[in-house]
């Protein structure tokens, strides 16, 4: 009995391999739980009532209202500037009612009144020029040409997005790598146990022959 127990004692290398396997299993599970609660679940909720549609520009206009943005000019240099509000109204193939276009979900949360937030520059005039350039782009280059947009009937029925912040690729990677880590951990543990078992059996067979 004592010999059998001694035979199944793991060497230092095998013990390290087992610890690595259990560590990867724990890391994979914790990553899945963390991403599921903090990021993946809200992302799926955003996509839950959403879909894609064809959008056509109805009107492009600048409001008189200006909004503040924060610029950075160095490690300890920050300040506030202002930019005009550009609104791009579109009609979707899903509804005849006009909707306000946004760059993505992040821009929608940052400023739901406007369709575009320029890179914040120190000079207000530069911010205005960037917004005016965007206005000309939607009026002259896009015009009446249809383009793909995204919507979410449950969260923001009156707004559409030009692109999604959480696309299928991002969601796949967030789910894939924790699962791969978990499976690699299980594989290491199983291979270590199998290798030890085979070594013990080989040693037993060798002793029987002698």
Question: Per the principal axes of the C-alpha atoms, what is the gross shape?
Answer: elongated
**What is the count of β-strands?**
5
Percent strand: 25-35%
Poorly predicted sequence stretches spanning 5 or more consecutive residues: 1-6
Descriptive account of the structure:
The structure is a single chain. The chain has 210 residues and is of the alpha+beta class. The protein has 2 domains: 16-37 and 170-209; 49-165, no CATH class. The protein contains 5 helices and 5 strands; from the N terminus they run ααβββααββα. A 5-stranded mixed barrel has the order 1-2-3-5-4. A hairpin with a 3-residue loop joins β4 and β5. α2 (12-48) packs antiparallel against α5. Residues 1-6 have low confidence and may be disordered. It is found in: Membrane.
Task: Summarize the structure in short.
This protein is α+β, with helices and mostly antiparallel strands and 210 residues long. Helix content is 52%, strand content 29%. α2 (12-48) runs antiparallel to α5.
